Amino acid sequence: MTKRVLLVGSSFSAVPIFFKLKERGFHVSVCGNVSGDPCHKYADESFFFDYSQREKLLELVESQTFDYLVPSCNDYSYMSCAWVASHFDFPGYDSYKTALILHNKSDFREFTSEYNLPAPRALKTSDIDNLSVGGFEFPLLVKPVDSFSGRGVIKVDSAEGLATACDVSVGSSRAKSLVIEEFVSGGLHSHSAFIKDGKIVVEFFVDEFCTVYPYQVNCSNHPSKLSDGVQRNISAAMSRLVGLLQLSDGLLHTQLIVEEDKFWIVECMRRCPGDLYGYLVDMSAGIQYTDLLVRSYIAEDLPGRVPLGVYKNCVRHTVSSAEPINFFSYSHAIPGEDVWVVPLKNSGEELGVAPYDKLAIIFSEVGSYEAMLELSPVLDSLISIKPVEG
What we know:
GO molecular function: ATP binding; ligase activity; metal ion binding
Number of helices: 11
Protein name: ATP-grasp domain-containing protein
Helix content: 25-40%
Radius of gyration: 21 Å
Strand content: 25-35%
Keywords: ATP-binding, Ligase, Nucleotide-binding
InterPro entries: ATP-dep_AA_Ligase, ATP-grasp, ATP_grasp_subdomain_1, PreATP-grasp_dom_sf
Shape: globular
Largest sheet: 8 strands, antiparallel
Order of helices and strands: EHEHEHEHHHEEEHEEEEHEEHHEEEEEHE
């Protein structure tokens, strides 16, 4: 009998996940409240509702017979799935308590502090009328505990701006709670690791840049410029985290700030990163990132070893805008031996501001390592967006 999968998420970022499931011959149902999303066009069955309302997701799962429950590429999907999975026996999930530690920014900061993992110091508050940040020096970062893609994150340079920043930030939090943490300087990087039996079996380091919206990645490259020593130290810290939380098999994706030989863990997640991150790794490393991702959720073993060849020098750019534009056309001057574009809008559609909207994602294989490192931080300058006239 054909096994049934529920994919929780329907946007373009979930498309690679959808097709990896279909490759296996599954009946794939999709849920998500935007009927025009691409995964709904391909789905064997669609359910239209807001999956961040976990009780509705639970009702659906209780009323159907799904063999597997697969999250997509945002925290709302993952946390709703993790909560529903705690009521059933779906593979691929940690305990819901562990999911909260990893995906709630305040809980995660408490965890890193308790176990002396390298991370910014932080304090949690839901009482923004009686703020106290004694012991912390400005600048500080104010973050909703439950946001993603940098939404609601504000840098505060002095005490005078703190209350206003907290008001704005808490407005981006469904939990109406925020975390205030020390601001650390350095370069932004990500570490994507696949875990089997409590050990990292393959890992990738990516350099990242935020050049349109200050807390949303829009430029990246693989392989990374991080030194072998820093990579080993990061890997050791993440392996320790895996052991402390006794994480189940699957992906652990982490963002970090690195300054010379020091690093700080910004956040971890067990869901797939967005903006087709896996395609960048595939293009460079010659693997199948999404295939590795879905395995734990469909009760397939991860390999004990993933062979890697010589990396190609590749960049990824998410085309976005700091201002709303009634988009007509765009062009790019991104060089490369192999360039391909994933369009996300049609001519005439409104392009909202970053981090809430995006126009396209561009991938390119660059000739040399040095050229890749030079190109990646300036990819946005090679984009021209033309608005509708009149």
